[in-house]
Amino acid sequence: MSPVSRGFRHLHRAPAGQESRLPPGQYVTEGFPVLSAGPTPHTPLEKWTFSITQGGQAKKSWTWQEFRALPAETITADIHCVTRWSKFGTQWRGVSVDTLLDQAGYDAPYVMAFCDGGYTTNLPIADVTGGQAWVAFGYDGGPLEAEHGGPARLLVPHLYFWKSAKWVRGLDLREADEPGFWEKYGYHIYGDPWREQRYAGD
Ligand SMILES: Nc1nc2c(c(=O)[nH]1)N[C@H]1C(S)=C(S)[C@@H](COP(=O)(O)O)O[C@H]1N2
Ligand SMILES: [Mo]
């Protein structure tokens, strides 16, 4: 299956005065490229759940209805893809990962996000707490489109966008930082765009 990759038009430099918003080696796009390593899954909402798991066991699980009843926030963020596009001022609606982890209870240094379709990505707990990460279900005032990760995706805008797992279904609490899907293929284990951590060893 060849990866889907489209919407790379008009990559340009940061507008005057906005240069400091653009991490090194990045260009600005006005479009919203789609990058998917496989086909877009379509899980019906009545079968959708979000779970915080540990050692394969669910500590807490929400149905779509329960998830949507949680307090939501509007998030405005710049996003940065490792393929060098950045998009300024994207607007999302989502539930803070803090809310989910606080309800589940947690005591682990890492998480592995897991998704419909089998994609995974690893993150330190310190990067998904403290108001830095959301499970986003809305984009630009509407529902999040399936190709961009709907019904819900992880949003971790301070790291390269591959960490923002689309079609996310849960977070598995981990004692060790194990590589996820792209990290196993040689992408950086952490992925800070400001330190240009694109590939292992950067
Ligand atoms: N489940 C899943 N999540 C994923 C991916 C993927 O292939 N599958 N691609 C990642 C990559 S490399 C990027 S840049 C962003 C792209 O999100 P977009 O398609 O909404 O632009 O999703 C990330 N999350
Ligand atoms: Mo990406």
Question: Topology of this protein?
Answer:
Elements: E1 4-6, E2 27-28, E3 34-36, E4 49-54, E5 57-63, H1 64-68, E6 73-80, E7 85-96, H2 97-104, E8 110-115, E9 120-124, H3 125-128, E10 134-139, E11 142-143, E12 153-155, E13 168-174, H4 181-184
Parallel strand pairs: 2-7, 4-13
Antiparallel strand pairs: 1-3, 4-5, 6-7, 7-10, 8-9, 8-13, 10-11, 10-12
Bound molecules: the ligand Nc1nc2c(c(=O)[nH]1)N[C@H]1C(S)=C(S)[C@@H](COP(=O)(O)O)O[C@H]1N2 and molybdenum atom.
Molybdenum atom binds at residues 35, 81-83, 161-162.
Provide structural commentary:
There is one protein chain. With 202 residues, the protein is mostly beta strands. The protein has a domain at 46-75 and 90-195: Sulfite Oxidase, Chain A, domain 2, CATH 3.90.420. Helix content is 10%, strand content 35%. It has helices spanning 64-68, 97-104, 125-128, 181-184; strands at residues 4-6, 27-28, 34-36, 49-54, 57-63, 73-80, 85-96, 110-115, 120-124, 134-139, 142-143, 153-155, 168-174. It is globular, with a radius of gyration of 16 Å. The mean pLDDT is 95. The ligand Nc1nc2c(c(=O)[nH]1)N[C@H]1C(S)=C(S)[C@@H](COP(=O)(O)O)O[C@H]1N2 binds at residues 33-37, 81, 115, 117, 119, 148-149, 161-162, 164-167.
Which blocks of ≥5 consecutive residues have pLDDT under 50?
none
CATH class of the domain at 46-75 and 90-195: Alpha Beta
- The CATH homologous superfamily of the domain at 46-75 and 90-195 is named Oxidoreductase, molybdopterin-binding domain
Main sheet specs: 6 strands, mixed
Strand content: 25-35%
CATH architecture of the domain at 46-75 and 90-195: Alpha-Beta Complex
